[in-house]
Fold this sequence. Notes:
9% helix
Amino acid sequence: xxxxxxxxxxxxxxxxxxxxxxxxxxxxxxxxxxxxxxxxxxxxxxxxxxxxxxxxxxxxxxxxxxxxxxxxxxxxxxxxxxxxxxxxxxxxxxxxxxxxxxxxxxxxxxxxxxxxxxxxxxxxxxxxxxxxxxxxxxxxxxxxxxxxxxxxxxxxxxxxxxxxxxxxxxxxxxxxxxxxxxxxxxxxxxxxxxxxxxxxxxxxxxxxxxxxxxxxxxxxxxxxxxxxxxxxxxxxxxxxxxxxxxxxxxxxxxxxxxxxxxxxxxxxxxxxxxxxxxxxxxxxxxxxxxxxxxxxxxxxxxxxxxxxxxxxxxxxxxxxxxxxxxxxxxxxxxxxxxxxxxxxxxxxxxxxxxxxxxxxxxxxxxxxxxxxxxxxxxxxxxxxxxxxxxxxxxxxxxxxxxxxxxxxxxxxxxxxxxxxxxxxxxxxxxxxxxxxxxxxxxxxxxxxxxxxxxxxxxxxxxxxxxxxxxxxxxxxxxxxxxxxxxxxxxxxxxxxxxxxxxxxxxxxxxxxxxxxxxxxxxxxxxxxxxxxxxxxxxxxxxxxxxxxxxxxxxxxxxxxxxxxxxxxxxxxxxxxxxxxxxxxxxxxxxxxxxxxx
Length: 597
């Protein structure tokens, strides 16, 4: 049995969804508290928000969810941007602004997302990183409820959540837009869970597809694709919709508004898919964010697992197109490349352009290979124009190829539209001062329409307005872990959730993949193994870098006739600094449960 640890106090820069009140642990005494360390540009964090919703409904009188927003990007430190994100993603619990990463350090978080559980007497009883913990949390909460009900320390009743006032606009955080034949625009109205058709002015409502309620039928839809006419005629629908939070693609028939599921089981992806074709409706997808017609099929920006997939609407099959699920930046022949939350697609000539948001990069596929036009890595971002090798974006979500071969980029967290010219290899700024632009559309009349998501509107840019910004360079200010040079033991700590055991029926139950940026940081220890502990050798001549660690563990229920199986997986990008007096062991928690619970 380990020593009981008091939960650190909840101190932050401010609070949201509390009616203006700052909460303390004393205010929450008698409740089971689940802290969700997140940052709103992280797709895995958005997955966890969705996983927590059923728990909030089931245990609402005994459990209080608290979002701890510990930002990665500079833009995410803006309290107004955070307030918008809380509404955008339907966060219906209090959120504390951990803009200085104080709580992140107090609770020893090392990855987004991380969950921490506090019992009704104020003790920290569990910590877990990554996705897929809903069932384990439910079992743990049941145990805590039983124990603290018996002890008389659980106090049921309403929590501290205070909803913000509703707003009235045509759109609420629109995501993507396309042009329809005849000039009308089709827009994904993400926070209202619907697809909206408007006239060419971008304001006059024509019709809305979907009820506007989450899951009826859409849940935070994003990308839209108008199929080629001959394909649409064959399949019976005109538009493919990336139904992001439902982890599905839906077909929309414009003539009568019929909506059908065309790909995705509705379950979030949890395990690898080989390179063969799979039945589209039976396959699990992961946060499809955009769609484009390229290589005679639909290409899906599978943001949730850092890949591109393909979908054949005629054969009704899907498969992996590019990416290995490792979250980083590596070019080369597809599919063996690395991406990080691809979120925007556009086709120009023979190239498929990609807004790779977590690496703040503009990338493209041509002749079966992935290339990076602009972007330097997971932790390098800013607003800098000039030569492409020096230019910086900040979490771009949209891209539009232009007829002259150049590309417009919705540089979301810089609030700008940028232009990359492959002929000169230069980046310039077309417009700035925009509210989180998430997509760019070139219409048939030559207008440039920007989906200004944070302002809930479509905006037309003035033609020819191009200027140069020398802006600032940023790096993520996440605290680095000190390590000693030479031999370093990497331990991924994993304890199955209550009622589960490691599942070895199909081979080893665990898997660990390690790489580094820069690669020369690791002298030994890179690669894949089935052991969650590994000996690394750190290069003393490299002062700092990032260890990229991917760990997963397969479990199944115990003492159940028809046992369910589960896969827990987490990607870490761990900044490290090499120092002579640093520790020689680096522990990472995939899932850990304190026996005191």
